[in-house]
Amino acid sequence: MFKKLNLALKENKSLIVFISLMMVFRSAVADWNDVPTGSMKPTIVEGDRILINKLAYDVNMPFTQQSLIKLADPKVNDIIIFESEVSQKRLVKRVIGIPGDIVAMHNNVLTINGSKVNYQIASQQENKKVLTENIGKQSHTIQLTNTSSRLANFKAIRVPKEHYLVLGDNRNNSADSRVIGFVPRNEIIGRSSKVVLSFNYDNYFLPRAERFLLDI
Q: Helices (DSSP H) in 47-125: which residue ranges?
């Protein structure tokens, strides 16, 4: 039995090495993440598979979230992927507040460090609207439904050290820092800026070619 096993290992050595290297690569360098919900619409939609840059902030020990070398910290407007201990699952959200920032929201309008965030209407439908949200020199789109939401308001709060305030772009339908609290720095596994592939869940999982390799 052991002779057959050793022979199989020798015959498939190249394949085993390749698989091992791919596993290390996906664990520590780059991976992709399926997005099953619409909490980041309109930026990311259900069925998108987004690229995770795992070297955006840290060099981690493979197969762990133990940082070996810190490369950078998340910035406002970054789309981050993190393993949420509170929700017990991997989440994708946008950084709105970094350590030391004071953030508040009133009727879905953000105030950051005393400055009210500027918005422009990008498109509007009967039941929802898409806005451009401008934070400093950064801008992105968010989606609001025309129904009231308990998530539309929170009092001014300071982001603690080594934590981040994150929101979903689909503001009325996102379990983000308004639900799970601040995100600890050590839960963040990477940053995303591109959709790799996309499949339409509502149309027999057919590919959405227009979203392949889409910058977000």
A: none
pTM of the predicted structure, to 2 decimals: 0.90
121 and 131 Cβ atoms separated by less than 8 Å = yes
- Helix (H/G/I), strand (E/B), else coil: 20: helix
Radius of gyration of the chain (CA): 20
Q: Quote the CA–CA distance of 165 and 102 in Å, as a whole number.
A: 10
**Residue with the two structure tokens 């598979």:** 49
Helical H segments across 86-191, by residue range: 177-180
Residue (of 77, 55, 44, 54) closest to 214 by Cα position: 44
Q: pLDDT digits over 148-169, tens only?
A: 888 999 999 999 999 999 999 9
From the list 215, 201, 186, 196, the residue with the least C-alpha distance to 58 is: 186
Q: How far apart are CA 112 and CA 114, in angstroms?
A: 5
Instruction: List the beta bridge partners of residue 89.
Output: 84
